């Protein structure tokens, strides 16, 4: 019964959300640059966010490494203006280094859609994030790895609450998939329609 009610609420949400045409490749094709761009999508207006993302990508470009995991985690402590961004980056770098893994190779493994939940949980764990993961890591999974993902910020959460839908990314992604709906364009459009920090 609960699933039927959720599905009905999801259908109402889809009907009330105009599907925005969004450049799905806004992060670029390089996994390292995509990850840095996602982490840089902090709580700022568009121009500030773009500057933070550009500075992070310059940091990697000037480092002249072939793979993000080749970076020394100790050099990654001041890449971003916010501590949590640097913590996630350093956490990923330290975890990969400890396990002798390459970031680009891991992205290929994570991109296996059949095991999207395990991939997301591994990304979150390696970054030192909470089990539910922050919006920026969900965005990386959705827009670079092309995994089923429903990133949720405060604007999206408000709309989900209004439609009596789950307010966690894992629950919304599962609900969409059970209902036969691709969560990625719905989440993208809902964010575009709800966000007020675009300038």
Indicate the radius of gyration in whole angstroms. 17 Å
The chain-level mean pLDDT equals: 86
Low-confidence stretches: none
Count the E strands.
0
Note the run of SSEs as H and E. Answer: HHHHHHHHHH
The biggest beta sheet is recorded as: none
Q: Based on helices, strands and strand pairing, what is the structural class?
A: mainly alpha
Strand content: under 5%
Net shape: globular
End-to-end distance, in Å?
A: 42 Å
Helix proportion: 55-70%
DSSP summary: helix tally: 10
What topology does this entry show?
Blueprint (H helix, E strand, L loop, with lengths): L1 H15 L14 H9 L6 H18 L19 H17 L3 H8 L5 H12 L7 H9 L10 H9 L6 H10 L4 H12 L5
Helix pairs in contact: 2-3, 2-7, 4-6
Describe it.
This protein is an all-alpha fold. It has a domain at 31-115. It has helices spanning 2-16, 31-39, 46-63, 83-99, 103-110, 116-127, 135-143, 154-162, 169-178, 183-194. Helix 2 (31-39) packs antiparallel against helix 7 (135-143). The radius of gyration is 17 Å and the shape is globular. 36% of the residues are buried.
């Amino acid at each position: 019964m609960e699933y039927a009610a959720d599905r009905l609420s999801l259908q109402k949400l889809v009907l009330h959300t105009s599907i925005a045409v969004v450049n799905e490749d806004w992060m670029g094709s390089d996994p390292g640059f995509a990850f840095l761009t996602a982490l840089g999508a902090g709580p700022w207006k568009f121009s500030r966010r773009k500057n933070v993302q550009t500075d992070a990508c310059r940091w990697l470009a000037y480092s002249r490494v072939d793979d993000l995991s080749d970076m020394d985690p100790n050099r990654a402590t001041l890449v971003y203006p916010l501590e949590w961004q640097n913590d996630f980056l350093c956490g990923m770098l330290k975890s990969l280094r400890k396990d002798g893994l390459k970031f680009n190779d891991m992205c290929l493994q994570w991109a296996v859609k059949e095991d999207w939940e395990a991939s997301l949980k591994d990304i979150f764990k390696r970054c030192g994030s909470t089990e539910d993961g922050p919006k920026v890591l969900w965005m990386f999974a959705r827009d670079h790895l092309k995994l089923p993902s429903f990133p949720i910020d405060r604007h999206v959460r408000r709309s989900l609450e209004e439609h009596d839908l789950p307010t966690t990314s894992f629950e919304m992604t599962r609900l969409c998939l059970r209902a036969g709906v691709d969560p990625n364009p719905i989440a993208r459009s809902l964010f575009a329609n709800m966000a007020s920090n675009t300038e």
